[in-house]
Structure formats: structure tokens, C-alpha cells
Specification:
globular, 14 strands, Putative retrotransposon hot spot (RHS) protein, DUF7578, RHS_N, 16 helices, 17% strand
Length: 431
Amino acid sequence: MGFNLTLSIEDAIFQGGVRVHKMKLNNFLVRELDGRGVADTNRTVLLKEFFKDPARYVHDSEVLREIKASGRYLRAERAVREEMDMEEDVNRLYKNGVDNLLKWLVAAAEVKANVHEITKRFLDAVAEEASKPTTTSAAMKLEGLYESVYNARWHHVVEVPGGEGAGMYVREGKPKQSWTYKAVGETFEKDDAVQQSGEAPPVLMVLTSDRGWPYTLNGPHRCGNDLCVNCEVDRVWQIVKGDLTKWFSNFHLTLNPSPVPHVLIGTPGIGKSMAAGSYLLYQLLHCDVDKLQVVVHCFGETAYVFDKTAKTVTKYMGNLTSKSVLYGLWKSGMKGYIIYDVAKKGTPPDTDIAPCTGWGMIVVSSPNLDNYDKWTTQVSASRIIMNCPDKDDVKAMCVWMKQNRQLAEEEAEEEAEEEAGLLEKGGMSNG
């Protein structure tokens, strides 16, 4: 939804989203709590009525105690309470003649003081964004990008040591054996001493998305469909995956509400490359959709929202727009993960960009402290240092690029021969 000063107060606050408090009680119990407490007499009961007096609608005290102890109940109760407060504020503002953002900007101080603080802060922020002449917040659906990234094709580069045929070669598909790692303190390092039986690990893995990646779509040249993954990039994923696995198995709204936030620090141009963020995106899309429903790849004020439930990608522009979208997804009960690439020097993420519960986040940055230090300190993020590619990594990348170029030339020659054959056939039939 675009923000402008003629936007109604109701649309500015709720943005056309589904209201949680208008959900039917039985639907909520079936969808979120495995049907516990469902009753035929509650078919028309709304959540807002249920939360006023839960015992009136769920008579079994043991079942009700279990329901109230669940994180989903607590999240829904909070969302309903906030929605009811906001609806009350909308009605109060309308009675005072404040029905759009422009009228909110010029409203008397006593009118603004008469609404809840959360409503006031939100309307102030939206009105400020709408006042900017350069604000562009329209959502753009990117057809085919979800399938392209999710179904990215695998290749890998292997090294054949010594003797005849020695060298590096490109193989199709995912390698049978990947790298192994060992725990060192709170992080992982590659373990060269361990090698499982069978084929040796690859030197390099390559993922190809025919429609590119958010990183390349957001870049100045809009090119590059191949994602080169070395052991350092994969190591980052192993760390993130480990934290997610712990969180998935021990989610608690109060004690363990979100996975560990991370900041990934690499060298300019290499460590902070498309590889780490894009590889995390690919792997997060393949996480269990029941546990993680959204993955967001951000570049400054541009956000690519991958909805795993709908299998769609939507591009949003504008910092406030992106935060509003994420808040809406969180309010609807979705869990997600944000990959924030510091796209420009001095554009660190806002400390409140990620919803307060149920969402993880990693910031990908060069070593410039200004890019991440404030965010890292305020959210107590764990640091991951990513090393530069070594000489074998670079050599493998060159082997891949050379073979890829040869394949492209061969395909072009085959297409030219096919076209020539068709033209020749057409000429003979006409003769």
C-alpha cells in the first residue's frame, strides 16, 4: 500500500490487512492449537469476544489452562488488544474530524494526546514518510523469482590430484560430500582432518538461478545468475542453521522468543558479497515452512519479501513501508528471517526493523563499524567473521567461469545450426 497524505487513518493503521480480532474462535483453535477447545456453540464467536472472557467459551479448565499457556494464545491476545485499542483510536479521531493523514498532521495537540501511544507513534511515522516527495512505496510482484531461486541448479568443482588427468573439473548436481566443520568456542571452523568415506568434498559449489538473485537485481548492472559457494560461505550457513535448529526445538515466547541475531563481517568486495546473503536466502527457503514462513532480503530501504506459504516475491521500497509490511506479517502469526545487506556506506539497519518475537536477523557488512556497531550493540548480536577466498577457491571460480563460457558458446552454435537447418528446410519445401 502506498503512503500519501490523503490516505485514511484506518487504511494507514491497518493497511488493508486481515484483522485478527475478527477471526472466528473455532478457526483459531483449529489452525493454531490443534483444535483444543473447539465447540459447536462457538461457531460464530469472534476472538475479541473470546479474550474478554475465555472461560465462557472453553468450559474445560484444564484445556483452557493449556491454551492460555501457549505462545500462540499470548501473541493473538496481544494482537487483538492492540487492534481494539487502534480501532477505538480511529473512531475517536473520526469523531474529531481527523479522517486522513493530512488532518492528523495539523490536528490539535489535545486530539493527538487522546489516542494510545502506539497509535500516535505509528501515525506520526507514516505521516512523516508520506510527506517526503521522494517516497516510493508501491509493492512490486516479481513473477517467477521465487521458483527460480528455490529451484536453483547445482554444479560443483572438484579437484583430481596427481598423475594423469589431474586438475579441476566441473560436475553437474549437488556434491555427494560437502565440507565438515568442528566447533571452536561459539563458532565453527572447517575441519580438514575429517573426511567421510567416498568422494572428496568439492572445492567450490555453484547455484544458478535463471532469473538472478535479489542481490544481482538490486545491483547497478543487474547481472550474474551464478552463486559461487566456498567453504566459508557454507560455514556461515552452518552457524545460522545451528541457532535456528535450537530455536525451532525450544521456542518460548518469553524465554526464547527469537533466534540469535548475527552480524556477518567480511572484507570489502569479497567477504561482503552476493554469495553469503544469497546462499542464506536459498537455504532458508528450504527450511520447514511450518517453522519459518517468510524470508526477507533487504538492501538499505529496498526489501524483497519471499512468502514461502504463497511462493511469491514482493519488492518494497521505503524504510517505513518495509517495516510496516514486516509488522503486518508478524501480526498475522508468521515467523521469518531477515538478511540485511548494508547496501551503502553508513546505512545500518534500524534497531527495530525486525519484529520483537518470532523473527531472526543477520546483517551482512564490510568491517566498517559505522555500518553495524549500533545495531549489534542494541540487539546483542553475535559476530561471524568470514575469511577471503583462498587461491584454490579463486582457481575453481575461474574453472567454472571458463567452462560456463564454453557451454554458452556451444549452445549458441547449436542454436545457430538449428536455425540454419530450419531455413534450409523451408527453402527446399518452397522450391
